[in-house]
Amino acid sequence: MSVISSEECKTVWDDCLTIIKDNVDAKAYETWFQPIIPIAIEKSTLILQLPSHLFYEWIETHYVHLLKMVIKRKLGSSGKLQYRVVMEKSRTPNHSKIIKLPSYDLPAIENPPIAAPIDVYAEDSVIPNPFILPGIRKHRINSNLIESLTFDNYIEGECNRLARSAGWAIAGNPGGTAFNPLYIHSEVGLGKTHLAHAIGNQTKVNFSDKVVLYVNTDQFYQQYIEAVKNQTINDFIFFYQSIDVLIIDDIQFMAGGKQKTQEAFFQILNHILQKSKQIIITSDKSPVEMSGFEHRVLSRFKWGLAAELHVPDLETRIAIMHKMLENEGAEFPVEVIDYMALRITSNTRELKGAMIAILAQASLNKKDITVELAKEMIDKYVKSNAKEISVEYIQKIISDYFGLPEESINANTRKREMVLARQLGMYFSKKYKKIPYSTIGTYFGNRDHATVLYACRAIENLIQTDKKVKVYVDEIDKKMKI
Questions:
Q1: Per residue in 45-69, pLDDT tens?
Q2: What's this model's pTM, rounded to 2 decimal places?
Q3: Integer Cα distance of 386 and 108 in angstroms
Q4: Does position 214 have pLDDT exceeding 80, yes or no?
Q5: DSSP characters for 395-417?
Q6: Which end of the chain is less enclosed by CB atoms within 10 A, N or C?
Q7: E strand or H helix at 434
Q8: Do 220 and 301 belong to one domain?
Q9: Which residues does residue 146 pair with via DSSP β-bridges, in sequence order?
Q10: Are 135 and 144 in contact (CB under 8 A)?
């Protein structure tokens, strides 16, 4: 193809823009493609004028593959692209001078960029601004990680094994596993933030040269707003795209009317994934339960692994209590640890809160740490006493009441006293836990829905017809509320 007129050149470029517009978000299109001016087409080479070297670097970094596809579609398999950059006024007296840059097939730049390159360092020292400013060298990024939140004190159990294993693998090969992004979700207080910090801290141990950053979504949003005010959005995006391991906590707070923030986050997320860097996201909802996000953002959340943290079982809660006490340099009697683990089941934060309350009360009033003191503190600090009664606690109360081994309640036996104890356990589990019959059945030897329903109705009938059983129920109920 020989040299064609500027009008024809514009038509070709407009056709290219139509394709580009369908493949990038509106903000990126407006920022990076609309300011480009088509100059000419010479020998199957489309020549474009860019307003600055910043544009050249950004487009070559982020959109070169898209441009190759578009140019070859419009100009044929031999189609090429060449840039010409207008020198910035602030850097040279002759700001109208044109600098020719090679095509993307020859990525070396004939003239050095006007803006000084950005050097990012992994060392932890506080930076004065929330993100790097172009042209300023040797900023050091504070990772914002809490050093005490590590894998060493993150207790593994069935409730978190998948997420913990994935996190450990990421720390050993950030960006190089199938878990990218790693999307950790659960209700509050189950260890999402701890695990996210543990991954970041272990990554720094394994790779001292990696830039790791933890930021919660509210901080990210406030930084974005500040960037909008200061007209430094590109700097904001550059900064986050320079991170090797980015940890975003509580992503659900980006939902709703924050489309512009989501657009910026999408650019960052896309870049990190394309460059085989690592992103870790936490949320109180799974990706399929999230609302208020653009579809393309949600689709990226599903690219890697979505791992849910569940409420820890009794054994894990006891192990967590021992680790908490070890970290505090304190000791509790075994019966106090067991009681706390049985009574506080919703999350580990309440376990820790109750532990601190007991330690404070014992220290200030010179009291021994006993089950009675634990009961007193738990009644004050646990939100709902009935809500926090666990199935394991119910089983323990009933087994102690009848003088039976706890495991016998779940055994496959038809002995009358065992059957009655098991039925009472099912009855109280339904009364205090408000959980499905099938779920209750899993705690009692994997009994089915019908068996649990029958047991609950049997006890209700016996309360009306058998005075002895009514006494059992009343006395166990009182013990349950102690």
A1: 888 888 776 677 677 777 777 888 8
A2: 0.55
A3: 69
A4: yes
A5: HHHHHHHHT--HHHHTSS---HH
A6: C
A7: none
A8: yes
A9: none
A10: no
Question: How far, in Å, CA of 351 to CA of 357, rounded?
Answer: 10
Residue 303, helix vs strand vs coil? coil
Task: Give 165's pLDDT tier (boundaries 50, 70, 90).
Answer: very high
3-state secondary structure of 307: strand
Q: Give φ, ψ of 46 to 5 degrees.
A: -85, 125
Encode pLDDT of 105-150 as tens digits.
323 333 333 333 333 333 333 333 444 444 333 346 788 899 989 9
Q: Can you give the pLDDT at residue 481?
A: 67
Closest to 146 measured CA to CA, from 189, 204, 211: 204
Q: Give the pLDDT confidence score for residue 435 in this predicted structure.
A: 79
How many alpha carbons lie under 13 Å from residue 329 in its C-beta half-sphere? 0
- Tell me what the pLDDT averaged over the chain comes to: 80
Residue with tokens 């009574």: 343
- Under 8 Å between Cβ of 318 and 338: yes
Question: Residue 336 is part of which domain span?
Answer: 314-381
Q: Report how many domains make up the chain.
A: 4
Backbone dihedral angles phi then psi of residue 277, each to the nearest 5 degrees: -90, 180
Residues 290, 412 within the same domain: no
Q: What is the 3-state secondary structure (H, E, C) of 66-121?
A: HHHHHHHHHHCCCCEEEEEEECCCCCCCCCCCEEEECCCCCCCCCCCCCCCCCCEE
CATH number at residue 220: 3.40.50.300
Residue 281's pLDDT is 95
Q: How confident is the model at residue 168 (pLDDT cuts 50, 70, 90)?
A: very high
β-pairing verdict for 80-86 and 45-50: parallel
Chain-centroid distance, C-alpha 278 = 12
Task: Establish if 153 belongs to a structural domain.
Answer: no
What string of H, E and C letters represents the secondary structure of 220-283? Answer: HHHHHHHHHHHCCHHHHHHHHHCCCEEEEECHHHHCCCCHHHHHHHHHHHHHHHHCCCEEEEEE
